[in-house]
Write a structure and sequence with these properties.
The chain is mostly helical and 414 residues long. It contains 19 helices and no strands.
Length: 414
């Protein structure tokens, strides 16, 4: 049994146990919550303590690798420019579409209130300051204070500037710094792996509290969440078809035929890396020059996840709606920036690690609690299918687009 399946089963078991105990004996449910809540909180704290060092080291190593790749040649530079444009467009799409979806098909209010009560410890980060104050405070006067106060956007921007500064120093110094941060990154990945090894216990405890407090309505609310977030991934996949047809000017029938095998692998494995051989074959069907596809496709798999900023923004906006928080435009823009920047260094990580490490900064930027992520990570298996489908589809569409711009695609074959 895979770890993701085990966590999902523990979620269901915890919810059923909580609902059942509350139905039989409310007093016993209260005792159970008194035991389970500290266990779930302890596990959540273990996840949250890894966020800042992991985000900083991932961003530094990711930006340096991206900058080095961009210097490899014009095609590599065009590929990275294409990737950055795509993630900006997908994040913007999610920022506009998610509130529309939540307005058209709102979260069942009774379930939302019950879930909010069950996660009462997940207090919002705080009210969103006016846009002028947000802009004035975006550059930290004390980077350590920014880390202590969870000013993650300021911390991310400083880290981004520091990473670009690393690319300008001599090779020996850059290699030393890169090795230092890479070692910290690897150690943090091992640590978060240990925390995630305990995920079945932590998720069961959190689910028990939710089930005992919210009742059976928790199941309906989680199904609503899955459908909403998966819809954003599906829209990213549709954007890939639009990009292939309108920008790369590939006939949609040919693009769909070239993409289908990679999509089949993506659904069965939920891995862009496992889908890479099928994407290489798909690039041949699109008549992309092998020299271009052999450069762009591995770059896309290694450093580009088109769905990550979009779906992470959607998750954060969903939590905001769940807790009755209405973020202002400045907070939404900050969340988009955080989502795009966090995606730079986390593309090659397992989904469970990227889920918390890349969404928690977006939640903080939006001013919503990150604690619900400990519960939502258990149902990520289904949205992750759509994440991978969108990623694979955009990888091939981006490759065709870069090939078109570089003049390495056969323009004469219909």
């Amino acid at each position: 049994m895979s770890r993701a399946t085990l966590i999902l089963l523990c979620l269901a078991a915890g919810l059923l146990a909580g609902v059942g105990v509350a139905a039989v004996s409310p007093q016993a449910a209260g005792w159970g919550i008194g035991v389970a809540a500290p266990v779930g909180t302890l596990w959540l704290n273990g996840l949250q303590m890894t966020v800042i060092p992991l985000v900083v080291t991932l961003l530094i190593t990711g930006v340096v690798a991206t900058a080095e790749a961009a210097q490899a040649g014009r095609i590599a530079g065009r590929a990275i420019a294409t990737f950055l444009t795509i993630v900006t467009l997908t994040a913007t799409m999610a920022a506009f579409v998610t509130p529309v979806l939540l307005h058209a098909v709102p979260i069942p209010r009774g379930a939302a209130e019950a879930l909010k009560t069950a996660l009462a410890h997940a207090a919002p980060v705080g009210p969103t300051p006016p846009i002028g104050e947000s802009l004035a405070g975006i550059v930290p006067t004390n980077i350590f204070a920014a880390a202590t106060n969870n000013a993650l956007l300021s911390l991310i921007l400083f880290t981004l500037a520091f990473a670009f500064a690393m690319t300008r120093i001599e090779d020996a110094g850059r290699a030393q710094l890169l090795g230092f941060f890479a070692a910290i990154r690897d150690a943090m990945l091992i640590l978060i792996g240990w925390v995630l090894w305990l995920a079945p216990i932590g998720v069961f405890a959190l689910a028990f509290v939710v089930g005992a407090s919210a009742g059976g309505s928790a199941f309906g609310a989680l199904v609503h969440y899955i459908v909403t977030i998966a819809s954003i991934g599906f829209l990213v996949m549709l954007m890939a078809y639009a990009m292939a047809g309108l920008v790369a000017r590939v006939p949609l029938a040919r693009f769909a035929r070239a993409l289908a095998p990679a999509q089949a692998v993506a659904i069965s494995t939920q891995s862009s890396l496992a889908s890479l051989p099928a994407m290489v074959e798909g690039a041949k069907t699109l008549r992309v020059d092998p020299a271009t596809s052999s450069l762009v496709l591995p770059m896309a798999v290694a450093m580009f996840r088109a769905t990550q900023p979009a779906m992470n923004v959607a998750v954060s906006l969903y939590i905001a709606d769940w807790f009755g928080i209405v973020p202002g435009p400045a907070a939404v823009v900050a969340a988009m920036v955080a989502a795009i920047l966090c995606s730079l260094g986390s593309a090659s990580l397992p989904a469970q690690i990227t889920f918390f490490a890349s969404i928690a900064p977006v939640c903080v930027a939006l001013g919503v609690p990150a604690a619900p992520l400990g519960l939502l990570i258990a149902v990520e298996t289904i949205p992750d299918i759509f994440r991978t489908l969108g990623n694979v589809s955009m990888d091939l569409a981006a490759t065709a687009t870069v090939s078109r711009w570089s003049g390495t695609i056969d323009k004469d074959i219909p």
